[in-house]
Amino acid sequence: MSFRGFLIKVCHVTGLPVLEPFVRLAYGEDPKEQFRGIAKFILVPLLAVGLFLGAWSMAARVVVTDSMKLPGPGETWNAGTQLFAMHFEQRRADAEKQREKARSAIKLYAQAKATEKIAQKSEDPAKQKALQARASVLKRQALDAANYVPSSAPTFVDQIITSLKTVFFGFMVATLIAVPIGILCGMSPWFNAAFNPFIQVFKPVSPLAWLPLAGLVIVWWYSSLQSEPFFSKAFLISAITVSLCSLWPTLVNTTLGVASVDKDYLNVARVLNLSWSQRLFKIILPASLPLMFAGLRISLGVGWMVLIAADMLAQNPGLGKFVWDEFQNGSSLTYARIAFSVIVIGLIGLLLDRFMIFLRNLVSFGNPAAA
Amino acid sequence: MSIATLAQPVSRSSPLPEPPPPIMTMRGVSKGFGQGITRTEVLSNINLKIRPGEFLAVVGFSGSGKTTFTNLLAGLEMPDEGEVLFEGQPITGPGPERGLVFQNYSLLPWLTVRGNIALSVNRVFSHWPSRKRRDHVEKFINMVGLKHAAHRRPHELSGGMRQRTSLARTLAMKPKVLLLDEPLSALDALTRSVLQDEILRIWREEQQTCLMITNDVDEAIIVADRIVALNPGPRASLGPMFSVELARPRNRTELNHDEYFKGLRNAVTNYLVAVRQKDRDDQAARASQPRFELPELEPIVPSKPSVSVFSRSVSNSGQ
């Protein structure tokens, strides 16, 4: 395949057909047609966004109460840039503090060594003992300083990262549960009959209903643990709530994918006398991957949506908590920051969706479906 | 005049040589689907012997149960009545000794041409060293002329290339009987005749027994040693057997002027058309007949001494 064909294929598989006219234009293919494509995919959406911004700023002028005011696009943008500026300022300050601590750690360690030397040289056992105690105190201080972790409040970017970690952890747990069960349900109508009531009943349940129960189980589990757990309680509650909600689309789609494997493929397996595991791994799983990944895509979307609510309620330091805290503290910037985080949440959701489309197209036997 | 007499009558102790035992036999095979009121009988009382090494064509109209017929021979379906024998043994399921080429190719879309063929080779010849298996796969890719497309996936292939791949996949299992279920019916006429020649070449080279299901009488005459007609379903049964006594290799253009070819083609076609017409007439007659609705009444029969009384007395006396 030519490089051009490869690039166009990349555009389709990554779910970015927007870029296709540019690739074709770069190779000088019928410019008029390509400009039409660019107009359709770029200019028209840009125009629509412009109209939306206009309507938004008009609304911002109208929607005003005694204490609150709908932020306009400009204010939102400023609040956003400020959030990022605060993040970088914080990082810089933290780094400064850390360097300082590292310097003092070296200094303390040197002092400790010097004290130890003096202790060795001194002949008075009492004095030696005191000096050695002093040296060990200094050493411990040096160690603390070297291991210093800035304890500043999480910034907006930190919160985004926490949210992403939470959603991926929850999504991973959901996938590990849903895919095997889905395969079993798809392969055995009996197993499906047993599981179907649970799927039907729990599928439409909102995360807010799950959250207290998930919290209860995790609090109980943590109370029985002796050692320090690896995950914080709030993180785990959020992640498990995400799992419980994003389980179902994957489960249902995997079941459908496995149950609807083309009968001809199964006949091929029968003619070849494939064993059960060979049939599963060579025929059934590859054949059901596209539907399974379509389910995973919906799951990740649901998970991201649920996460914001779960973060709010479980006080997991993610984007949901950010929105909630802003709402509670009620500064003049509150609503602008919330509006900004709404857009950020949307954009991250879009990126996650594109990523899943990309994965799904990779397993669709070279037939990328429309995004 | 003298009458010559033989001193001793010579008894012909060795009559005609025994025909070789059939490689596959269908004995009184019936098959239907569904149960109760929704049941349809597809095939009924099929008897067929496939001779080793022959090329047998089964011709029939669509809907006459041709696919069920091949599935029975392949072992994908089990007969409701009767039995299907392979080398004298009843078959219990599909196996690599009976290679089936599917009508709709049934290639696995996530595997390349090479991957599809390798799947069957790796399974059937799992005891071979990997080097030998790889060479075997390449041999069959070359045999169907797909060397240039071995790395492509099915959706990047034309219909003819897909069927070649499917053929290579089945041939690579080295089946003793090759079952071709309308392998060429989805292809254009040109690709069709090319693939017919290829199937014949491979059949000669591999010296297999071959059974081809088709709806094309010309195709059947060109490829087959014997042609058997399948009467229209439901309850399809086998019609007469036509023997094709044309020298091989058969040339299509020459055959078009051959009187024997024309006669045979007419005979087979006329039989199929006539049997379908009869079937339709029967159906029409059945539909136009006045229907008698019988009341749901039990006829009154003078009561006989019941069997249960009798059997009880027997069992009592036996105690």
Task: Explain the overall architecture.
- The complex is a heterodimer of chains A (371) and B (319).
- The longest helix of chain A has 49 residues, at 73-121.
- Chain A has helices at 3-13, 20-26, 31-62, 73-121, 125-146, 156-187, 189-202, 207-224, 233-259, 263-271, 276-314, 319-329, 334-362.
- Chain A has 3 domains: 3-62, no CATH class; 73-146, no CATH class; 156-362, MetI-like (MetI-like fold), CATH 1.10.3720.10.
- Chain A contains 13 helices and no strands.
- Chain A is 81% helix and 0% strand.
- Chain B is an alpha/beta fold.
- Chain B has 2 domains: 40-97 and 177-283, 3-Layer(aba) Sandwich (Rossmann fold), CATH 3.40.50; 108-174, no CATH class.
- Chain B is built from 9 helices and 10 strands.
- Chain B has a 6-stranded mixed beta sheet with strand order 6-7-8-3-9-10, with helices on both faces.
- The radius of gyration of chain B is 26 Å and the shape is globular.
- The relative contact order of chain B is 0.13.
Outline:
The complex is a heterodimer of chains A (371) and B (319). By secondary structure, chain A is mainly alpha-helical.
Give the CA-based shape of chain A: extended
Give the % helix of chain A.
Answer: over 70%
Radius of gyration of chain B: 26 Å
- With strands numbered from the N-terminus, the spatial order across the biggest sheet of chain B is 6-7-8-3-9-10
The CATH architecture of the largest domain in chain A comes to Orthogonal Bundle
Q: Could you tell me how far the N terminus lies from the C terminus of chain B, measured between alpha carbons in angstroms?
A: 84 Å
What is the radius of gyration of chain A computed over CA atoms, rounded to a whole number of angstroms?
29 Å
Which fold does the CATH topology of the largest domain in chain B refer to?
Answer: Rossmann fold
Total helices of chain B: the number is 9
Query: Which structural category do the helix and sheet elements of chain B fall into?
Result: alpha/beta
- Classified by CATH, the class of the largest domain in chain A is Mainly Alpha
Q: Report the β-strand fraction of chain B as a percent range.
A: 15-25%
Tell me the name of the CATH homologous superfamily of the largest domain in chain A: MetI-like
Q: Which spans of chain B of ≥5 residues are poorly predicted at pLDDT below 50? A: 305-319
Instruction: Average the pLDDT over all residues of chain B and give the rounded result.
Output: 82
The chain pair with the largest interface is: A-B, 20 and 22 residues
